[in-house]
Amino acid sequence: MIAQPRADGAAVSVSSVARAARVHRNFIHRHPDLHAAAVAAARHPAEPVPTNSAASVASLRADILSMRGHNTRLQERIQSLELRPSEAIGEAAFPAGGLGAPDDVRTLQQSLADSHQQIVELRRQLEERTDELAAARAANRELMTQLNTAQAVPA
Hints:
By secondary structure, the protein is mostly helical. It has helices at 3-7, 14-21, 25-30, 32-43, 57-96, 105-152. The longest helix is centred in the last third of the chain and has 48 residues, at 105-152. The radius of gyration is 42 Å and the shape is rod-shaped. The model has no long low-confidence stretch (mean pLDDT 83).
């Protein structure tokens, strides 16, 4: 379609290419490959249009660029469409095959986290009580020492 404005003798622009393709200018602006081909065709001076029906080199290059872009868009669309059924089948087959995790995994994980927190708290309490016990034993020893020394010396 890029060759059409040149064949008509008009200047090549995004608008003239869109008019020849019977699409809106925004369509060409939304597709970078088409826009680049139109801008490239507008930059290069028009080659002489052959008198016979043979296509010019520039028009063939523009068509190739356009087709490559179209091909790329189609390949991306096909890949996205191919992924949908395979993902749906995989999601359905995974639990049916018994390979999936239980439904209450989140509950189990929360319970595990709570248990871990409880263990940490109990260890902290144990350390505090161990320290208190050590202090009580030390005080007991000191009192026993004082009591024994007071009884050993008769007055």
